[in-house]
Each structure stands twice: as structure tokens, then as C-alpha cells.
Design goal:
Layout: E1 4-8, H1 15-31, E2 34-41, E3 45-46, E4 49-50, H2 53-69, E5 73-79, H3 83-98, E6 102-106, H4 120-127, E7 131-135
Parallel strand pairs: 1-2, 1-6, 2-5, 6-7
Antiparallel strand pairs: 3-4
Amino acid sequence: MFKHIMVPVDLHMPATVKKALDVAADFAKNHSSRVTLVHVTDQQVKRGHTVGPSGDELADLANKMAAETGARVEGLPVYSVDVGSEIDSILPRTAKELEVDLVVMGTHMPGILDYVFSSHASHLVLHSETSVFVVR
């Protein structure tokens, strides 16, 4: 059903990211899907690899998920000058460029500010051409 799954990843690993990774791993196992872990970063990116420790963390996370699921998993760092302000445009564009069938993304429970400013996940749901599975 899902051939290619994208998972936006914050390498600080909030609980919602870990849950989203578990959901994506389950989909990958059950649908023989490939997975791309997307990390939006302000660190320098050379040839698809983040220069510095976060690049190694992303590669380790992809390798660990591949070993656990048997799926093809790759890490994709995406450079941004200002992650906070550009992430809402980067994620739907990246999903379209990768031609993914599904985005699995973690989010937080809505608070009072979410009624004024939407979360990145809700923005992606509203502005992506791809199916989005939001995990809390």
C-alpha cells in the first residue's frame, strides 16, 4: 500500500518523534516500504550528509531502523538558513520531490498557542499533496 514513507526527524528525539519512528517502522515491515528520515538542519550539508555529529546521528538512526525492520532506510539532511521559519515550506516540498506515499510525523498535544499558530504537523496536513499520519 505504501511504497515510500517520509519521517521528519528532530534528532533531539522528543517522545513524539520516537513514536512516529515506531509507527513508520511498523508500516515499513507490513508494506515492504522504503523509509526516508528527513532532518531539517542549519548545519552545513555536503553530498547528502550533514557535516558534524548530527550527520552521524542521522546515519546511525537510519541504520538502526533498517536493521530492525529489514526495510531500506536512508537519512536525508535538508539545509535551511532558518529552520523554524522555513520548515513548513520545506517538508511538503521535500515530500513531493521524494514522491512519497505517506508522511509519518510526530506532534504535541495542542495548547492555547496552537489555536493562533498551527503546529508543523497541522501545516503539513493542510498543505501537502501526500497522505499524512500524525502521531501523538
